[in-house]
Predict the structure.
Amino acid sequence: MTKIIQISDPHIVAQGELAYGHVDTAKALKKCVEKIGRILPEIGPIDMIIFTGDLTDFGKKEEYLLFRKIVEELDIPYQAIPGNHDNKLVMQKVFSDKDWMPKKGPINWEIDFNDLKIIALDTSVIGMAHGYLENISLDFLKSSLSSAKEKPVLVATHHPPILTGIEKMDIQNLRESAELNKILSGYNGKLKLICGHIHRNIVGQFGDIVCQIAPGVSHAVTIDLRKGAPNCLTKEPGCFLLHEIQGGILSHQILIDHYDGPFLFYPESK
């Protein structure tokens, strides 16, 4: 059965710098890579890692190169889509050696496994924080779903189309999403929409589809549901998601930090 790891919002900055003056994002991504390597015997094999946007904080070449250096320590195939903090033009150049990276236009791609299809869509808008799907991306989605032949599908975007109650993030979500809703809800097989951007594990309904937002790998957007609350981060434990086919699409949250255990619930008495 296919197993996919989703990592979101690494926000890599230049070597030795802290994101927002507080977060060592490179260290956090290294810890994530180490955690995956350590638990592979228990959760693997892993077929692929998806990065759902904001690979970097400023979209600079040196940030992407540091990202690649860290991630490629794992011998697991990976693919990525951009977020609002990425520069898709720089990203296309840095990953030009990857066959999944288009040379121009939106960074959309698809991949087929025996029991799962993944469709990744570029929602980034150059110079803007909110998300938007161009017609070319919606057409790509329609074509990809038509070839899925009702097998389970993961559709990946950076920006979620659902409201979370975190006001400063909701104004940056995916805009004009009615057509996306119509296309996804019209698919006859099992389908799940997976996103990033909010840095929190949030599950909601988008039309007839379950939408799951991934936690951040290094920090979280502060959960403050008051109107007018400032846009803040909290240094909560980093996490990633594991999606697998178990009849339908089953998703696990896995903490990056190490905790004591495992311990038997009922050890045999000596």
